[in-house]
Amino acid sequence: METRLGELVERFGGQLQGDPDIAIAAIAPLERAGPADISFLGHSRLRAKAARSRAAALILAPQDDAEVAASYAGARIVTANPYAYFARTAQFLLGASKPAPGIHPSAAVHPGARVDPSVHIGPQVTIEEGALIQAGAVIDAGCFVGREAVVGKDTHFFANVSFHARCTIGARGIVHSGAVIGGDGFGFAEDKGVYIKIPQIGRVVIGDDVDIGANTTVDRGALDDTVIEDGVKLDNQIQIGHNCHIGAHTAMAGCVGVAGSAIIGRHCTFGGAAMVNGHIEIADHVHITAGTLVANSIAEPGRYTGFYPIATNAEWERSAALVRNLGAMRLKIRALEKALKALESGSAAQPQAG
Amino acid sequence: METRLGELVERFGGQLQGDPDIAIAAIAPLERAGPADISFLGHSRLRAKAARSRAAALILAPQDDAEVAASYAGARIVTANPYAYFARTAQFLLGASKPAPGIHPSAAVHPGARVDPSVHIGPQVTIEEGALIQAGAVIDAGCFVGREAVVGKDTHFFANVSFHARCTIGARGIVHSGAVIGGDGFGFAEDKGVYIKIPQIGRVVIGDDVDIGANTTVDRGALDDTVIEDGVKLDNQIQIGHNCHIGAHTAMAGCVGVAGSAIIGRHCTFGGAAMVNGHIEIADHVHITAGTLVANSIAEPGRYTGFYPIATNAEWERSAALVRNLGAMRLKIRALEKALKALESGSAAQPQAG
Amino acid sequence: METRLGELVERFGGQLQGDPDIAIAAIAPLERAGPADISFLGHSRLRAKAARSRAAALILAPQDDAEVAASYAGARIVTANPYAYFARTAQFLLGASKPAPGIHPSAAVHPGARVDPSVHIGPQVTIEEGALIQAGAVIDAGCFVGREAVVGKDTHFFANVSFHARCTIGARGIVHSGAVIGGDGFGFAEDKGVYIKIPQIGRVVIGDDVDIGANTTVDRGALDDTVIEDGVKLDNQIQIGHNCHIGAHTAMAGCVGVAGSAIIGRHCTFGGAAMVNGHIEIADHVHITAGTLVANSIAEPGRYTGFYPIATNAEWERSAALVRNLGAMRLKIRALEKALKALESGSAAQPQAG
Fold first, then answer.
1. What whole-number distance in Å separates Cα of residue B32 and Cα of residue A199?
2. In DSSP terms, which residues pair with C86 in a beta bridge?
3. Prediction pTM value
4. What ipTM was estimated for this complex?
5. A72 Cβ under 8 Å from any chain C Cβ
6. Which CATH number is C3-94 given?
7. From the CA of A137, how many Å to the nearest CA of chain C?
8. Domain C102-304 of CATH type 2.160.10.10
9. In this structure, what DSSP letter does residue B179 have?
10. What are the pLDDT digits (tens) for A24-48?
11. What's the pLDDT tens digit per position in B259-287?
């Protein structure tokens, strides 16, 4: 859809420098934006590029405005958080693309499921008995929604999502293709070397405004529920074990794994492929670097890291061999300390003996 | 379904302290269990919680019985392995929930497939020519079973499993949503910088009582088969390369990766995100800690570990810089040893010279 | 299909030692090959096994020919790269197994999609409006192809692939089951602790001869495209973030993760579970070892490694504790150096003082 700069400022605030009637049809990056596009300046280091942009309008921060305005002739929206402003603008411009309500004739919707008339259900979908799909939800092709599962208002399942029995997700969620919500947790009792499955009868309970990435898996709880609070953002190929609890507005990058019964705080971030052991607790505002294994609970906010530094293979072979032999190195240091002390007493004694 | 304590003890053994006619309808955790529930005491540290439980009955170990019985008024089943007993009880109580036999009208079952009349096939399923689905199997919505594949008795595929041509799985298996069994192995011949695909014509051959997690992938063999023996338990998002052989009753936690042609023994365990290099051999009863890369064969049973210890980011930056410079540190120690030796000879010589 | 040795040599070159009319029906490994099979010798260390093979013919390198020929009585094709020759032979022998053209009646193909008459579309497939499926493509059961997506000539999607709107893949590609191409990139603006989604409107643009493994995910670009050049081979469960650029003929093993906006050169290789940080650049001909995190750009070709060496758990506990205390170790070495220097001056001074 098309909008005017005036409408954007009415909706999202910011200070407009320019004509409110300028029409905006699309978003574009600084270097590709043309006379119907709006773009944004995310970092001050891009000022020169912004100044040369042919965008109809730029969203930028107060500290960048003067320098950009000196050579850029288009309109500007000045705001404290240009990236967030751009995000809202982009959502607004692109928001009208929702598919029409209705159920595709190839979908298998159980007569005992409750589907709001405003819902879109694509081809090859399966909705089981007792499931509830609330107003404005979009269930794309090939998705599976199990018995008595609940999909909240305006939540969007992309193609081929599996959302299992009795699990629930709140409003405005996004679940990407191939995600599996509510598979059984990995729970077994060992008896003489053989594993006996513990039935997994808890649910996955997901709050509002949660995004779940492609091929991410969230297991149902064993007896209690797995819980994902409001505003959590999970990237692709993340694994969340049974009975985990992820606090609100925590974000995890791709390939993160969280073992069962981990309790993670609010406003945490996890870099790609970070791993969290089971049955540990992580406080609010903890930030884990990519590739780091969190083996124990973390009680203090802050940034934590633990990965082996990359090097040329030859250098790594040397350093890895030395890491294995750190014990020997320590013994040598102790021996040196002892020998030195002996020598010092000897030396110190000498003058008196002399 | 509902049962009586007497029936549980008849089926699973254990010593009953209490009335065999007490009715049990469900399992529940210690703190939530009520007068129709059975619960269990998994660790002695939970004795106090067990003593306060309002469960109709508790499953517990002999060493915990006296203390719990002192204040807990319900019935007790005393057994050496309460967790395994609980698992069997839970399976028994929940076991009757199998869907009715029959093929959903939206399923595409090739006329040349052989499907036992007791099998349940859900909506949107595809079964290709020559596939064999044995008695009591359940194939949920959206699954794909390829040509001449074999699904054993009472095996359950959750929604959206891909089980490719000629692969086989035995009895009582569980394959969770999004798992892909029998995709091509990653085999290429390089010729002047360009990769030429090696056709992958082996199968995946899976034993009885194997569980495979959501979005886990097991590749077919190149010429020979990939083999997963009886009782293996694979969690979610595990990758098993072509021509691997996983020994019976080995268990792997989420996100583990096993490269091609690795041979893994029986009764091994792998923590989350452990990685195994290709063409290596791991003995029986080897236990790999989470986040550990197994670069070479392991011949001795035991626990093996290798991950960089987590620290605050500032501490990690210091330690990682030192890890890179361990060579320099070793040189300094050597120089110290040499200098000290020189000094010792000097010092030792002095008194005689004095 | 069956062929003759003469036809293989005509097609793929090599020097034939033996009767060109010998019939070949299949490929097989050295030890299982029989009188209708062709096999190959990939490494000189397998010479003895090759010499005992009962294959009708062997493909082998000049340096192995004399020794093998001494005891092996079958025909030989001598070529500089036996593995590549074997790959081409295997493809040729197995190549005729393409399914018949046509659209399965259960598929939901939008009337506004353009599907070449030579295309095979399996059961339960969804093809959306404006999609273009070119000649000879095979779309297996349960796949989803979004609006205006393009699938190139002779490209094969295995069951349950999700290929999203406007993404394109070239000719002769293979996409394995569960792969998700064109899911949204993980882009959010943070505003007062809450994440605001950045709409992801770029595409995924994939070249010719690209293979994508099972459950691998490639995100669409934010504003620009994610690009995968010709001949790239991605194994299973790989995650490629938005706006990445993967150079031609680069290969990645299973479980690799590449964060957003990483630029990776041509002819690179990545071992399993290697991870690449976002916004970095990796030169051509860089080889990353399994389990290694690439935290910064790499400008020089070569092999790079960084993983913690595995050890028995007890040894690891000692070495990991010492890694954490490397700072203390360094201080001790400094103190030793200082004390030694003091001692040396003292010792040196003594004789003069004596």
1. 17
2. none
3. 0.95
4. 0.94
5. no
6. 3.40.1390.10
7. 18
8. yes
9. -
10. 999 999 999 999 999 999 899 999 9
11. 999 999 999 999 999 999 999 999 999 99
